[in-house]
Specification:
There is one protein chain. This protein is α/β, with parallel strands linked by helices and 367 residues long. It is 40% helix and 13% strand. The chain is built from 14 helices and eight strands. An eight-stranded mixed beta sheet has the order 1-4-3-2-5-6-8-7, with helices on both faces.
């Protein structure tokens, strides 16, 4: 650490010394070091682009992002701070999936298959809400909805700055980015045809309040895609969080690196599977995975009760075809695959099915 501090204090750096610094600290944060953004080494130039030029552009973008409402909830403030410090996920490229030959309802039917919705949206511009867009990957996925206007909100200005850089890079023009809390959605004074909220509600103090806020900007014909953590599938994360608590590891870069060293050194062999995940090797990703400010987890029976309480109809899980075929073999009497009691049994028998999270579509009226 002392050697790194000495390197930081050196005003003139070589490509090699700057590369070493970049392994320990984001280069754009090192104010006193003069860095020449051009080199004959293409790999070094790529490092400078990622760690210096792009973050500087993101900081510039923040000034252009609209802010609505006040983030008052204490947990929301803490989550905002986490993603301002470590925007998530960090990504470089994304394919834009636009197929003008496929109506919106056909795209959704592909996800909820074998269930099928019969009616399509009217031939008008669709209002799409991404409630918790993070650094913008979902914005690219939402480009599949043709003739649409996308509103993408998030707590974190730094994450939105990242998203703004990426949509500018790809020339996307149908998106409005807004910093706001989901709890303030009514301030938009707008209703949405499609709402996607993946990996967000389970990081709120009261997830059901977030869901109710979403429903307030929905219509009777809205379709909503939700993503929630599975208690069963995240059992290894629960064990990791227990380890973090027992070792009193701090929620900062040092604590995250200490945790990673404990796993790499074999101190906790039951958590070796963490090393198979890309998230394990990046500070921002590992923080989101195991060190999050707050995390709620659910079972399928929890989801069933939540949907019943809010008069929502379960339309189907978004899952690989192989999982749906296995479910079909197990429960041939559920041809539309919408029986949540059956899905609960299936998950107990196949506990890694929803390792990422439950991703599913719901509607407010029978389809």
């Amino acid at each position: 650490e002392n050697n790194i501090n000495k390197l930081k204090a050196t005003r003139t750096q070589t490509d090699e010394s700057i590369t070493v610094l970049g392994c320990y600290s984001s280069l754009y944060k090192i104010k006193q070091t003069k860095i020449d953004p051009q080199s004959s080494n293409n790999d070094f130039n790529e490092l400078i682009k990622i760690q210096l030029l792009e973050p500087q552009l993101e900081i510039s973008n923040i000034k252009k992002i609209k802010q609505i409402g006040i983030i008052q909830n204490k947990i929301s403030q803490n989550v905002k701070q986490q993603y301002d410090e470590n925007p998530y996920p960090r990504w470089s490229s994304r394919e834009i999936d636009i197929n003008v030959n496929k109506p919106t309802i056909q795209l959704i039917n592909h996800e909820i298959s074998p269930n099928k919705l019969k009616s399509d949206f009217p031939n008008k511009e669709l209002n799409i809400l991404i409630a918790g867009c993070g650094t913008g990957r979902q914005i690219f996925d939402a480009q599949r909805y043709i003739n649409s206007k996308i509103t993408a909100i998030d707590l974190s200005l730094n994450s939105l700055g990242y998203a703004k850089r990426k949509i500018n890079e790809y020339g996307i023009t149908n998106v409005e980015l807004i910093q706001m809390d989901i709890l303030n959605l009514e301030l938009l004074n707008k209703k949405f045809d499609i709402i996607e909220c993946g990996g967000v509600l389970h990081h709120m103090e009261k997830p059901l309040e977030g869901l109710k806020a979403i429903l307030k900007v929905s219509t009777k014909t809205s379709l909503i895609k939700l993503g929630l953590y599975s208690e069963l599938a995240r059992r290894f994360v629960i064990e990791a969080q227990k380890l973090i608590s027992e070792n009193r590891l701090s929620i900062d870069e040092k604590g995250i690196r200490d945790f990673r060293n404990l796993i790499i050194n074999g101190t906790y062999p039951s958590l070796n599977s963490l090393m198979t995940l890309d998230d394990f090797f990046t500070i921002s990703m590992l923080r989101d995975l195991c060190f999050h400010t707050i995390e709620h987890r659910f079972s399928i029976l929890n989801i069933k009760e939540i949907l019943k309480e809010n008069n929502l109809n379960f339309l189907g899980f978004s899952l690989p075809e192989k999982n749906k075929k296995l479910y079909q073999n197990r429960f041939p009497d559920d041809p539309w695959q919408t029986n949540l009691n059956n899905w609960n049994t299936y998950e107990v028998e196949n506990p890694d099915t929803f390792k990422s999270m439950y991703q599913f579509w719901v509607s407010l009226e029978k389809s």
